[in-house]
Design brief:
By secondary structure, the protein is an all-beta fold. A hairpin with a 5-residue loop joins strand 5 and strand 6. The chain is globular, with a radius of gyration of 13 Å. The termini are far apart.
Length: about 110
């Protein structure tokens, strides 16, 4: 069974940057599109970004122009580069393979003002 593992979560000040990674235990990156979601305390999980097999990217409005998504199929790894972070970006970030219904365990990102 394939597993996803996020890493790179941390606590940063507003305006800072972080890069999250999502590593899959199996060779699924060449077959499926990938997504990032986040869930802030007391709120529902929300879509952040996705990258398709062909590399087409899509971002939620709150992160457009600040976040970037990429994938390295050879390393079975997806990335989320987060720049100009704001306190409202504070959340647990999850990677997701919608085609398989797979979720990682989440990475905590905390942005202080």
């Amino acid at each position: 069974q394939v597993h996803l593992a996020e890493s790179g979560g941390d606590s940063v000040q507003a305006g800072g940057s972080l890069r999250l990674s999502c590593v899959a235990s199996g060779d699924i990156f060449e077959v499926y599109g990938m997504r990032w979601y986040r869930q802030a305390p007391g709120k529902q999980r929300e879509f952040v970004a996705q990258i398709t097999l062909r590399g087409v990217e899509e971002f939620a409005e709150p992160v457009k122009g600040r976040f970037a998504i990429s994938r390295d199929d050879a390393k079975n790894t997806m990335y989320l580069q987060m720049n100009s972070l704001k306190p409202e970006d504070t959340a647990v970030y999850y990677c997701n393979v919608p085609g398989l219904g797979l979720w990682g365990q989440g990475a905590q990102v905390t942005v202080s003002s």
